[in-house]
Specification:
heterodimer; A: 310 residues; mainly alpha; 2 strands; 72% helix; B: 277 residues; 13 helices
Chain lengths: 310, 277
Amino acid sequence: MSNTTTTTNIPARAWTGRGLARERWHGYLFLAPTLLFLAAVIVLPLFHAFWTSFQRIRGLNSTFVGFANYVRVLEDEAFWHSLRVSLGFVSISVVAHVVLGLLLALALNKITFARTALRVLFLTPWMVAAAVGATIWLWLLEPQFGVINYILQSAGLISAPVAWLGTPGTAFAAVTTVEIWRGVPFIMLLTLAGLQTIPAEQYEAAEIDGATTWQKFRFITLPNLKYLLVVASTLDIINVVRHYDIIGIMTGGGPAGATEVLPALLYNTAFRANRFGEAAAIGVLLLLMVLIFAAMYLRITRVGQEDDRR
Amino acid sequence: MNRTSPLGQAGLWIAILIAAVVTVFPFYWMLNTALKPQSEVFLSPPAFYSANWSLEAFRTLLVERPFARYFLNSLIVSLGSTLLSVALATFAAYGFTRFHIKGAGALIVFLLFTKMLPETLLIIPYFRLMSELGLINSHLSLILAYSSFALPFSVWMLIGFFRSIPLEIDEAAIVDGASRITTLWRVILPLARPGLVAVALFTFLISWNAYVWALVLTTDPSMFVLSVGIANMVGEYRVQWNELMAAAMIAAVPVMVMFAFLERHLVNALTAGAVKG
């Protein structure tokens, strides 16, 4: 994990041999295929998306309408509703990912038996396709024959079967639960790696001083992990706010828009309502949000890099 | 720090076991349902274990439904994007680590940026561009799309591996008269093999698991990949849950097997790569 905090110092060790100056431009030849490819498959479509957001598209005809799509989107209550749903979905998911991921990593770090096997096991929800995980949960949550209703009824927690995805509140809870189930392993994995970089001497010294388990966690583990946790949550926010697959499979944004996070609103506006211009405008607004967190991420990791150099 | 009281150890294991059950139960239920005969799927109370487990649902999927075709499509598309992005990433990572690149920092930030774009935004222009090019319902459109979001990550991860190979090795090869390409091919790549395997695997998994791109870029059922085939079954009027869970297994089990074998590689690469970007 020693190299986890470096970001932009890639060409730190330039070759000092005499060949370097002569072939300096050769480096760009090696980069060219990747850069051209990304220009064609990312940058071009991205510009196209911006361009689309200024167009009204009717079949094959499109007319330039300036900011009309943005105005329409921002005046539409559906967008603000969707933004609130996204905020709820992202904040609950990310907090749960971090808290549960941290706890799980602390627990796994304490045990010695079957650690690798357990780590693989706990990673399963994250490595399997989100679309597949969501499909399995659809069956677990099925109102009439789903096993979750059966278990909850047997335990006396509910008196009648619940149509989890049929009512707004429970549907939101359900998709959030699935997102939490899927995302915890990612934070666990990073935290576990981070825990292993904390010097054992710090704990030994604390034990000599008679520190309690809580004190060790509060004054050694947490400060050592702080940077990693901030970076990991920022990454997690970026990942969850863009994520579509789970909600796309489980509810498609319904019922009554209760789970229509921004990517779902975008998808539905584009591919169900065929309003590509407005969808692109929603996408650009979503992109701006992602960029705020991306900028935060860059800032934080750069700060971390300076810390390393000290 | 590992000195915990027996009581603490017991509590720890109880907590871990509860977490393990919550994590894995959905997969057990997938297996359990996939193996049930049609007659037992809608039993109430549901059977947690059946004496009549059979492969009937798998047979239906592969014989009566086009899941073999979906599997093949997933395989073609995932292998294609793995080859493409690992090849491109190898050159790029070599360029980044072996040469003075002006603006390397900005390029790295650009790679990071492309990794963070919302895919639902890119799908709109993709869909329209691919329609204009007549590439809807082609493997190529998916290979291009998957490579586009796997490539930045591959470059990231490979940079890490290439940096761990001393520059003196390149120097020695070049002094012996090898060209840069020969050096990369004959000297660096063999040394970076564990890294390449991890990157290839990761790209494969990203492509194998992708959903929404294929959902939009394929409309012809013969071109569906597994995830879209599964989603399509979810939308059917009367869902055959044992077949659906068998389909989920066909999509999930290859991932689990690959991951179990290469966990260490992948975890090291991911923890380094993910925190870096």
